[in-house]
Write a structure and sequence with these properties.
This protein is mainly alpha-helical. The protein contains 3 helices and no strands. It has one domain.
Length: about 100
Amino acid sequence: MESYEQFMPGTGAQIMAMAKSEQDHRHKMERRALWLSYGDSLLGKVLVGCAIATIAYLVMNGHNIIPAILATLIAAGPVSKLVRWIARIAGGGNGG
């Protein structure tokens, strides 16, 4: 930093200002990513809750086929994730 200051006075302060600006930007982007992740998670939970309520309503009103299809669609995501996890473990992966 001292060499920069000797060559061009004020450069050290500019470099520090740029570093601070970059850090502020990075923190802002990380906060945004965290909130988006939280929003996605919350939306997923709300949608699954609505689907489960719809299934319960349809079953109580004598429908069988549509609730079975909805339940299968809801279970498809977690089941496929479980199958991939088991396949990784069986293949010698880390399982994470």
